[in-house]
Specification:
The chain has 294 residues and is of the alpha+beta class. It folds into 3 domains: 80 residues, Glutaredoxin (3-Layer(aba) Sandwich); 111 residues, Glutathione S-transferase Yfyf (Class Pi), Chain A, domain 2 (Up-down Bundle); 57 residues, no CATH class. The chain has 11 helices and 9 strands. Strands 2-1-3-4 form a 4-stranded mixed beta sheet. The longest helix is centred in the middle third of the chain and has 21 residues. The protein starts with a strand and ends with a helix.
Length: 294
């Protein structure tokens, strides 16, 4: 049972991030197809061209039997129904109800934050001055996060116990708070930091750094600063060298593209496999298993 997941741009599409996390973070099988945010045709038009009407937005999920689910909250509920043991919603009834409430409000609200601070995983800004409307959204978000922690009493960094769909839906919010340096409490900053350090989030961001164009419409006039998440281990692509591995860690196919990291050379079966790994080597379990067990 493999799902087809239609996504927008890795760096900019916050809705797509949610859809992808619902599959990748919970270990569900999927194939992806990216739409072009830089194309003359709109996302809706591209979906029509793919014979995916009535879908108009990304993410869009196509189930193995061909049902089209084109809303991230609907995707969460459908996947949870099909995979009740995956952990998409908490098992505890009180935590599950809380998580659903948080996800629903995130799904439908916070227009000021979304508009003023579009997700941009390619850069971070210093000196952003949030409006009163954005500050009100941030205050409401902190109210929800504090309520979840007080209600569910999690032992780890996530809102309702183990990582759940509630955290999926707030992952783009964490990216916005970090990327624009928005003012929040220490507790909120700790929750944001947990997202930035999460390997699945890091994999998504690594792909966003190397796939697609830098889109001018997402740029802001503020000064840029280094991304506030964990610093990636140094790595770079190279054209010549002798790799330690003969087969790509991801596909098992013969290597054709090379990367150097900390004096070692590794091979991959295509440029994207190499480049996403070079962007953040520690985010990719298949690669780290190869590297650390050699």
């Amino acid at each position: 049972m493999t799902y087809d997941l239609i996504l927008g741009d890795y760096a900019y599409s916050s809705w797509s991030l949610r859809g992808w996390l619902l599959l990748d973070r919970f270990g569900l099988p999927y194939r992806t197809r990216l739409l072009d945010f830089n194309a003359s045709a709109s996302v809706g038009e591209q979906l029509v061209d793919l014979v995916l009407a009535p879908a108009r937005t990304v993410p869009t999920l196509v189930t193995p039997e061909g049902a089209i689910v084109s809303d991230s909250l609907a995707i969460a509920e459908e996947l949870a129904s099909r995979h009740p043991d995956a952990g998409i919603w908490p098992v505890d009834p009180r935590a599950r109800a809380t998580a659903r409430t948080l996800a629903a409000e995130m799904h439908s609200g916070f227009a000021a934050l979304r508009t003023a601070c579009p997700m941009n995983l390619r850069t971070a800004y210093a000196g952003a001055t949030p409006s009163e409307a954005v500050l009100a959204d941030l205050a409401r978000i902190e109210t929800l996060w504090n309520h979840a922690r007080a209600t569910c009493i999690p032992s780890g960094p996530w809102l309702c116990g183990d990582y759940s769909a509630a955290d999926v839906f707030f992952a783009p919010v964490a990216a916005r708070i970090a990327g624009y340096g928005l003012p929040v409490s220490d507790a909120a900053r700790a929750y944001v930091a947990a997202h930035l350090a999460d390997p699945a989030f890091r994999r998504w961001r690594a792909m966003g750094l190397v796939r697609g164009a830098t889109l001018a419409q997402y740029a802001r006039p503020d000064a840029t600063i280094p991304w506030p998440g964990p610093a990636p281990r140094p790595a770079r692509r190279i054209d010549t060298g002798t790799p330690e591995n003969a087969a790509c860690a991801y596909s098992g196919r013969p290597v054709t593209h090379l990367m150097q990291s900390e004096g070692r050379v590794f091979g991959f079966c295509n440029a994207f496999c190499r480049d996403k790994t070079a962007a953040d080597p520690d985010a990719w379990p298949a690669f780290t298993a190869l590297r650390d067990n050699a």
